[in-house]
Amino acid sequence: MTVDFRDYFWGEKNNGFDVLYHNMKYGLVASKELAEFLRERSNIEENNWKLVSKLAKQASSSCTQGTFGPLWVLLRTTAEKLATLHLQMVQKVSDLVKEVTKYADELHRKHKTVKEEEGSTLEVVQAIQSTSITLQKARDAFTQKGIELDKLRKESASPREVEKAEQKLKKAQDEYKVLIEKYGAIKEEFEKKMSLACKRFQEVEELHLKQMKDFLTTYAELADCNHDSVGQVHIEFKRQCLEMTVEKLLEQFVLNKYTGLEKPVEFTGVVEVESVADVVSASDAGKVSAPGTTSSNNQSSIKREGFLRSRRDKRKEKKGKKKKDSAQDNTSNKEEKSDTEEKEEPAKSKTPTPEVDDEGYCVRPKVETWDVDKGSSFYSSSDSDSDDEREKKIRVEIKPLSNGSGPMSASVDELRATVENLSLSPIGNMPPRRTAATANTHMKRSQSVSQQIGGKAIGDMTRAVNTTQSPTGSSASTPTGNHPYAPLQSPTPPITSANNKYADLGDIFAEVGEIKPNPLQKRQSSTPTSISSSIIPRPPSRKSEGGVRSPVPSQDGMEFRASGILLGSSRGPSPLTIGMADTIPLAIAFHEMIHSFFKGTDENKCQVKLCGDMMISFPAGIVTILTNNPSPAQLSFRLQHASNLECVLPNKQLLNVSSEPSSASSWEDSVYEFDMSALTKLLRRQSEENPSASYFNVDILKYQIKPKTGAESCPLQLVTYWKCEKNHTDLRIDYKYNSHAMHLPSPLLNLNIVVPVEGTVTNIHTRPTAAWVPDSHRALWKFTELSHHSERNGVGSLRARFEVADGPGDPTTIAAQFNCEGTTLSGIDFVLVGSGYRVSLVKRRFISGKYVCDGRHAEGKSRYSTPLNPDC
């Protein structure tokens, strides 16, 4: 119903004009009061900005040096964002206040114009009001005179009195008639002007209310936008708090504050050097002596005395020599004698006394030819500093480039990176570090460089478990990708038992094949595409500690890097290498997959299949150890928490099982032993095919997990309800996060739910908002993560109405896709048996396979929807 002021502002007292005029004045008051209200809101936002800015300053002045430092930075950043939002709100509201104030001024001028233009109407209103009063009085007087005349006639008054009364009545009647005529003329003019005034006042009020409503709408939008922005800041803060785990905080602390990676060197004795002349004489002797090798298998048993000695004794010896005035020849003989006397008896039995020629130079003994042939051994590197060679004097030999017969196995980039990492420290007062020079003509100079670069293999194992799992038995890899689990995005095909226990699952698992041992002849090698710039150092390999496990968590872009210990004229920071006595670090990866088929609303009808595989990553340095060690330490392991496994298929080309399990409960009793010769051949072949690889991945075994009853094994439980009408199709998807399905509760990441819709969809309505892909006729919901920290503890519903042109359609099968990091569905673990190896990293994850839900109760043809690519 349309409101018209001309129908509501009349009345006996004719006060409509006064009411409308005062209402117009109240509009001006309302505009001024609204400006004052908004100004007060701006002051509130300004106070909030000041208080939150003060809070941000407090957070910035807090201690950021500890492990909690990144969280202080997060708090400060959040407070600064909130302060910025409040300041923006202040500015926007202040601009709105200016607009309202400007409008109030314009409205005041407009009211003055209306008052002036409606002046005549006001005069008519006043005239009709006065005329109405006068007319009423005349009417009352005329009535009174008539009553008096009737009274006199009834009382039979004298004719004179009756005549006077009649004259008065006639006079009152004439006055009354005049006023009636006057009122009629005024009334006609009043109605005309009042109608125009009502129309004008209504137009003014409509424009005023529209403008005021616009102001309020703008204010509401500002408040809503600010509220959403503040909520977004809080959501981002919560997300970053969840991402900033204890593990990540500790890693950032180590990255910023680490002081070194190598433990102090253990020194067991003293290597005595008479003077710099000994070094020079040894160097000269090396120049004139015949080529020979300084490392052999027999020298590994020599007792080392270290390369540090007491400087006090040396100073005393030098002072005693300066006081002597003997000839140069005698001095040389005494120095040689002194040097010989400094050796202990065990050393004499091991090292022959060098012969001295006529000029005082040492003549090196002849080297047997079979020693020369051993130049390619593990310790034949030109920069070798093995402990059993430190007892010898320093001999320097510069060989031409053509002497190095071995091919360069390191790439130019790796050599450049190695040279850039080398640094020269100042020459100290301690005796020079003794290094053994080898004159083997068959020595490969590139071997020392490759060992240095290969030292990074231990650090690179943090990304070994991230490499793409190929169907082959092993692969040689280097770090690739920046995403922490990007290489694992392509999962291995799921496994089934030999009896195909899940054959009754039908078409939904038809693509699942049988498990077969991976042949060793097929391998793949991946080439690094990019290396992450975020590098965190890790401790170097330690001595054997009785097989103690030391798992180290990993993040994206982490690698082990050893920093060298500068001692005197050391060669500077050298990459981490693996010695014969070091425990070899291993990285383990568990990768599992779950297939699920939800059918109807009965969870007992849910069909589930779970499978997984285990991979071990070996550092590149292990190839040299296994090659040169005739009896390497036996690598054995057993599975822990494996009672819920249904089937385990080891790689029989590499593993030997000590005892075949008689039941599923005895999987943990089986010990899996590596065939060390087969493992050595495999890793050596991988090293030859890809000499620049930092680590080698080997698929060890595959397993199948016993599902729980119904949908208890599903980390994401789904139920769908369809309603297909002629003009629209309604859908509701109920979902629930189930933390009991996994070993340790962890959020589901990158969750996508895809719904194909039959028919021509003209419009969609979804809650929460979903993306529509017209090419494939699918609706897509995307969630960053789903966990107990999500809304309603991870329980909710997805609703959608699809308006279709050619309905009704049929219910379809929806699909879900997600991944979960840091945990597994089975909960199994890897335990080493024996010594010589250690676990430096364990990576666990599982992903969804065919994860579908069908709302129809009966079996029928359904359209399976593969989850969309997140980029689409």
Describe the structure.
The chain has 872 residues and is α+β, with helices and mostly antiparallel strands. Among the domains are: 17-244, Substrate Binding Domain Of Dnak, Chain:A, Domain 2 (Up-down Bundle), CATH 1.20.1270.60; 276-452, no CATH class; 716-827, Immunoglobulin-like (Sandwich). Helices cover 37% and strands 18% of the residues. The chain contains 15 helices and 21 strands. It has helices spanning 16-60, 69-117, 119-154, 159-243, 246-257, 276-288, 311-322, 328-341, 345-350, 369-372, 412-421, 445-454, 456-460, 621-628, 676-689; strands at residues 355-356, 362-363, 474-477, 523-525, 584-599, 607-619, 636-640, 645-650, 655-657, 671-674, 695-705, 716-724, 728-737, 748-756, 761-767, 771-773, 778-786, 795-804, 813-821, 829-833, 837-854. Helix 1 (16-60) packs antiparallel against helix 2 (69-117) and helix 2 (69-117) runs antiparallel to helix 4.
Structural descriptors:
eleven-stranded mixed beta sheet; coiled coil; 872 residues; coated pit; Immunoglobulin-like; alpha+beta; MHD; 15 helices; disordered C terminus; four-stranded antiparallel beta sheet; membrane; Substrate Binding Domain Of Dnak, Chain:A, Domain 2; phosphoprotein
Question: How would you summarize the topology of this molecule?
Answer:
Elements: H1 16-60, H2 69-117, H3 119-154, H4 159-243, H5 246-257, H6 276-288, H7 311-322, H8 328-341, H9 345-350, E1 355-356, E2 362-363, H10 369-372, H11 412-421, H12 445-454, H13 456-460, E3 474-477, E4 523-525, E5 584-599, E6 607-619, H14 621-628, E7 636-640, E8 645-650, E9 655-657, E10 671-674, H15 676-689, E11 695-705, E12 716-724, E13 728-737, E14 748-756, E15 761-767, E16 771-773, E17 778-786, E18 795-804, E19 813-821, E20 829-833, E21 837-854
Parallel strand pairs: 3-4, 5-21
Antiparallel strand pairs: 1-2, 3-11, 5-6, 6-11, 7-10, 7-20, 8-11, 9-10, 12-13, 13-18, 14-17, 14-19, 15-18, 16-17, 19-21
Helix pairs in contact: 1-2, 1-4, 2-4, 3-4, 14-15
